[in-house]
């Protein structure tokens, strides 16, 4: 009940914030404006439409994941509303888990709003409903949950600006870390090799959730890879939440 | 069993740079009986809020113990017995008063239906009836303070801890808050509140603890602290021959045709009263001028 109360309150806070709607609006706006780009395009217009639509939703939902996660936890501490929660019989782990589920719900609603518009738009423009795009969005949602867990971790001990920098950095690294896989085996120096291995396994591999190319070029999806990615996300999020709780338990609210 | 017992509480803060250590709480010992109003008095920065935060588990402490009804005050189980109003409370301004109380109640795992009814009663108690559906961003500071009181009572706590409940509240609001604190005591609750506003404290507390630079420098029943501190007696009288007063070495001041004399000695007071009556004078008033809490506080602070 306590986790539910914190989660619902987090959701209320996020959805009563104008920035949240602004980002959703821009997401939808860019999806719709991709139609304009197709006017200037030669060749497969549906492909361009899909490509731009998915990229827009991806970009704006990632922004929501980063900034809502950081903003909401920071505000609780800065405005001291957290005193009102933690002075009650609420453990710090309960607070963090409640926040996470609240953010997960916030992201779900934001994503689903953009996805519905996207599908309607695609249906209207191309007359096709590609179920595989739904898989893309499911994987994107798990990626967003990882990003919001990262922002939750950083905002549990750092300032909003630093948390944003750290989270954005990890997001970018997360999309290129797969290149380490081949690179790390070619390293000769054992120390650097060990460090490369550690980094490869510790840093989030967000490319696991990117199936945009397969969707756009209409190639088949690998179901075992998809399941593996979801398991990876659940494991990674759990590890991040445990780490956040451990740090948050030590935090002093001066 | 004591309602609140703090023993040997010590807390050090370390500055971010230089790693310099500051002893914020040096050795705090507090004992609060069940059903009493305990006033925790001290200037700004003395360590009042830090003590409360240590008690509630918002910050850690270096050594010492803190108990609520004989058990660790920081445990989740004991926190069910506490209602807390933080200093300068800030609540989610996107919520309505009712939503905030429901949220607070849910954090105590109180069923939603029950908490809704309770919220209505509490808003009435703190004088916010009819404001249930008003967003907190439209609340004045005094209204927020009252709402803070209401949320502190949502779990029907045995012990109510209030951090600077009077700060920023106008005189009428303060009077209402004082009445509310007294009504809590009358309903059997223990109230522990910190303040630097002496007048409010003097009017309602049973026991007072004065904290200065992280140390409790005086603690005891207010009645004991004040009754032992009659500074002098002020006798106002008239219709006595001035030359008689002078010849008997009685010092006085003349104000509005009344003589005023100040006596430190109780024996001499009896002598003066008899003297005035025997000389056909009239006594206007005899007032024992006691040490106020403010006098005690200032005396302790200035050493």
Question: Can you tell me about this structure?
Answer:
The complex is a heterodimer of chains A (254) and B (303). Helices cover 81% and strands 0% of the residues of chain A. With 254 residues, chain A is an all-alpha fold. Chain A has one domain (2-250). In chain A, helix 1 crosses helix 5. The radius of gyration of chain A is 20 Å and the shape is globular. The mean pLDDT of chain A is 85. By secondary structure, chain B is α/β, with parallel strands linked by helices. Chain B has two domains: 4-226, Rossmann fold (3-Layer(aba) Sandwich); 230-302. Chain B has helices spanning 48-56, 76-79, 97-106, 112-125, 141-152, 171-186, 198-204, 222-227, 242-247, 266-278, 293-302, and strands at residues 4-14, 21-32, 37-41, 63-68, 71-72, 82-85, 159-163, 190-195, 207-212, 215-221, 230-238, 253-255, 258-263, 282-290. In chain B, helix 6 links the parallel strand 7 (159-163) and strand 8 (190-195). The mean pLDDT of chain B is 87. Chain A binds chain B through residues 1-2, 4-6, 9, 12-13, 16-17, 79-81, 83-91, 252-254, and chain B through 13, 53, 56-60, 76-77, 79-80, 82, 84, 86, 88-92, 94-95, 99, 103-104, 106-109, 151, 155.
Determine the CATH topology of the largest domain in chain B: Rossmann fold
Percent of residues in helices of chain B comes to: 25-40%
Main beta sheet strand tally, sense and closure of chain A: none
> For the terminal residues of chain A, how far apart are their CA atoms?
28 Å
How do the helices and strands follow one another from N- to C-terminus of chain B?
Answer: EEEHEEHEHHHEHEHEEHEHEEHEH
Q: Estimate the helix proportion of chain A, in percent.
A: over 70%
- Structure summary, number of beta strands of chain B: 14
Number of helices of chain B: 11
* Radius of gyration of chain B, taken over Cα atoms and rounded to an integer in Å: 25 Å
